[in-house]
Amino acid sequence: MSQDISSILGSTSGAASTAVAAAATDRTSLNKNQFLNLLLAQLKNQDPLNPSADPNQFTQQMTQFGQLEQLFNVNDTLKTMGTNQSNIASSDAVNMIGKRIEAKSNLIEVQSGVSSQIGISLPQPAASVKVDVVDTLGRVVRTVNYSNQSAGSAYYDFDGKDSTGAGLSGVYTLQISAQSANGTTIPAQGILQSTVGGVDYTSGTPMLRVGNRTINIGDVLSINQA
């Protein structure tokens, strides 16, 4: 765009020519107001007896200006829509405080060896399901196996202990694998049920606080009264 502008500035006189050409080559700062100013400066400083701007070139530049203005207007509209969506998401998140939710999550929180729940969602029945409980260092501290599981969501009590019987404490990752009766792998999703205690805005996106964890609002599967 700025190259086209520069091409019609050949007869612009003196300091005005230099200033306009310099502005035209600065692609990083060219906006619609600067674009229009370049055209006006070119017309103002050209020799009226020997105009530099060919009518076709001038028409082309004005068309480009119109297109540029439309792009800026579209950009402003998208920014407004993004702000509105962010406000809606924030409002939705706040309204979930105190509600009981079911959400996708491959994390489990264990407090000082107290029993918890392992939630699993299956798209079809599974002959076997294996769940590895992994700590923050990537070590498998406990493996739990289930057999003949139905499709859908199910929750199982977890005693909060590692493979040696010692009590666990903290947030752990669940690595879930499931297979059908003929050995075909079935995609399994970890899930949780808990009450939303607050909203965390640290990441710039509203996240639901559940115990010591945060849940993306997009991972919520259902909302119920506590």
Q: How is the largest sheet built, in terms of strand order?
A: 6-3-9-1-13
Shape: elongated
Strand content: 25-35%
How many whole angstroms does the radius of gyration measure?
31 Å
End-to-end Cα distance: 59 Å
| Helical coverage, percent range | 25-40%
The biggest beta sheet, please? 5 strands, antiparallel
Given as residue ranges, the uncertain stretches (5+ residues, pLDDT < 50) are: 1-17, 23-29
Query: Which structural class should the secondary elements be placed in?
Result: alpha+beta
Number of helices: 4
Q: Find the count of extended strands (DSSP E, 2+ residues).
A: 13
The whole-number mean of residue pLDDT values reads 78
The ordered string of helix (H) and strand (E) elements is: HHHHEEEEEEEEEEEEE
